[in-house]
Write a structure and sequence with these properties.
Elements lengths: L6 E2 L2 H10 L4 H14 L4 E7 L6 E6 L6 H8 L6 H5 L25 E9 L5 E8 H5 L5 E2 L3 E5 L6 E9 L7 H11 L8 E6 L5 E3 L10 E6 H8 L9 E8 L9 E6 L2 E7 L13 E7 L22 H37 L3 H5 L4 H16 L5 H14 L4 H5 L4 H12 L3 H20 L6 H8 L22 H24 L6 H7 L4 H20 L1
Helix pairs in contact: 2-6, 7-8, 8-11, 10-11, 13-14, 13-18, 14-15, 14-18, 15-16, 16-18
């Protein structure tokens, strides 16, 4: 009996499933990677050859291979549901089979017109070689395609399958890095014994791992999905079937990996996204990661789209899954805000060397609260990066440094010289008294009066007929002199203000305890600042006397 290979199909089906669904190179290659995995291969090697117009691709695996009958009865049958026909759930190595629909073999027709397949079954010293040609398939009159084949002897007795794709439907050069990244996104195999390699023009091979997709990002925080589910979804009956890891990035995540990818048995079942959760929160710009929901493949209905980009979310099981995934994302959103704010605060403190609580604690209550509220708003604002937050806090500190109430008064240097230390230690009355002493001594030094009492020193030094003239030689902006009455009033003002601050501040209160004066409200922090401001005014006039 003459042997023959035969593929039965409707040409329009081939066109739809081949060209329209698998036009992207990584997605097409992914079908062959999955086939190699299901064939218990230890490795699969994807070799891209770019020689201008003569581009071709070679895919080699060391799996179990296929016999002639297996090729005819299984591989060439379009839409053959492997699990229904063979009742297979796992391979000999215990891998859960990823293939299901029997359509992946058509993937390569989306990117090339000719497919050469070479396969050898273990312990069989024969290699089957056959070609599938797009033009020939689509122009068959009887909807049955009989590819030409050869059976040749093999010497090494190694099993496996090699596929050579030629007559490619592309003109642009191969993007090796982009292909590596895309394949990394499409697979999340937990079986570490399976390796995927890719090369360009026989250059050094690159291993494709599930971690590669995250290599270009700096993760900031991470959550184990199982732990989150345990905390917030304890009543979800599929809780133990869900595994995964979700990360947030330091900078907004690239669009290529933003969102959470859903995998079923190591293959993507739903592209990165947020499962229809509201994406208005700034947090979603930073979220990436993966979730495994292998139980989806155990359900009676086939819920994964043929191109494995989306899941059917309209069943009871998938709706429950989506609801709980949304709960996870909302939990992570809140947790991210708290952790990011705490970290940003620590980084801002380290970068600026400013402890916000200590800084604002040196101010009066109203001012301190306002400054702290402003800083907290900067820290809590998700869109403000740590380095920007540090810069803003530094500027605020320059405007309102420690003891800002004191700083804002712009006190005379003589006043600051003797009062600042006492003020910082909240010895407000002492700060005032020391500044007053300095003023008295400077007045006596400049006037030369012999009086010993503070009150008399001021009365003998200042006034319209006295030694020190604080308004002398002062002219109007137009160069004209002020009236004598105006000048006399200024001189008397200096006298009475100086006498008053001595009488009202020192002479009356000096015998009282500073603590009692402060706690009673007779001499508060604000009183101190007001008195120091008045002394600064008097000092300025004294400088000009």
């Amino acid at each position: 009996m003459t042997q023959e290979l035969a593929m039965q199909f409707n040409p329009s089906t081939i066109e739809h499933l081949g060209i329209q669904m698998y036009s992207k190179l990584p997605n097409a290659l992914a079908e062959l990677v999955a086939n190699a995995y299901d064939a218990d291969a230890d490795s699969v090697h994807i070799k891209l050859y770019d020689n201008g117009s003569q581009k071709h691709i070679v895919i080699e695996d060391d799996g179990i291979g296929m016999t002639f009958d297996e090729v005819n009865e299984k591989f060439l049958q379009i839409g053959r549901h492997r699990r229904l026909y063979d009742d297979e759930r796992t391979t000999q190595k215990g891998r859960i089979i990823t293939g299901k629909k029997g359509l992946g073999k058509l993937a390569l027709f989306g990117i090339g017109n000719n497919i050469k397949i070479q396969t050898t079954k273990k312990d069989i010293d024969k290699k089957l070689i056959f070609d599938l040609n797009w033009y020939e398939i689509t122009h068959c009159e009887e909807s049955e395609y009989k590819p030409k084949f050869d059976i040749v002897d093999t010497e090494n007795n190694k099993s496996g399958t090699t596929i050579i794709l030629s007559d490619l439907k592309r003109y642009s050069p191969f993007d090796i890095e982009g292909t590596v990244f895309a394949l990394s996104k499409l697979f999340n195999f937990q079986d570490t014994t399976f390796k995927i390699y890719i090369s360009l023009n026989d250059q050094t091979e690159i291993e494709v791992t599930k971690e590669l997709k995250y290599d270009a990002i700096e993760t900031e925080f991470s959550w184990d999905v199982s732990n989150v589910l345990e905390e917030i979804c304890s009543d979800y009956d599929r809780r133990d079937d869900i595994k995964g890891k979700i990360y947030t990035t330091q900078k907004p995540a690239p669009s290529t990996i933003k969102g959470v990818s859903l995998y079923v048995n190591g293959r993507m079942a739903n592209e990165p996204g947020f499962f229809d959760s509201s994406e208005s929160s700034h947090a979603y710009s930073y979220i990436t990661g993966w979730v495994n929901a292998n139980f989806i493949d155990e359900l009676d209905d086939d819920l994964i789209s043929t191109d494995r980009q989306s899941l059917n979310w309209e069943t009871q099981e998938t709706k429950a899954l989506r609801d709980n995934l949304i709960k996870i994302l909302r939990y992570i959103e809140v947790s991210w805000r708290k952790q990011r704010a705490a970290k940003k605060k620590d980084e801002t403190t380290k970068e600026t060397n400013i402890d916000v609580d200590s800084w604002t604690g040196t101010m009066s209550e109203p001012l301190g609260k306002k400054i702290k509220k402003a800083v907290d708003s900067i820290i809590d604002e998700e869109s403000i990066e740590p380095e920007v937050a540090s810069m803003i806090v530094k500027h605020l500190h320059d405007i309102a440094p420690e003891y800002a109430d004191y700083h804002f008064r712009e006190l005379h240097k003589e006043v600051k010289d003797v009062s600042e230390e006492y003020y910082r230690h909240e010895n407000y009355y002492t700060a005032f008294i020391e500044a007053l002493k300095r003023y008295k001594n400077k007045v006596k030094e400049k006037s030369g009066v012999t009086a010993t009492e503070d009150y008399n020193i001021m009365s003998e030094s200042f006034g319209k007929d006295k030694i020190l003239k604080v308004a002398k030689n002062k002219l109007r902006p137009n160069g004209e002199e002020f009236s004598q009455k105006t000048l006399d009033n200024i001189e008397d003002g200096q006298k009475y203000l100086s006498m008053g601050i001595v009488q009202g501040g020192r002479n009356v209160l000096s015998h009282e305890e500073c603590k009692e004066l402060q706690e009673s409200g007779l001499f508060t922090e604000k009183d101190c600042l007001d008195m120091l401001s008045l002394l600064s005014h008097l000092f300025k006039r004294l400088d000009d006397a």
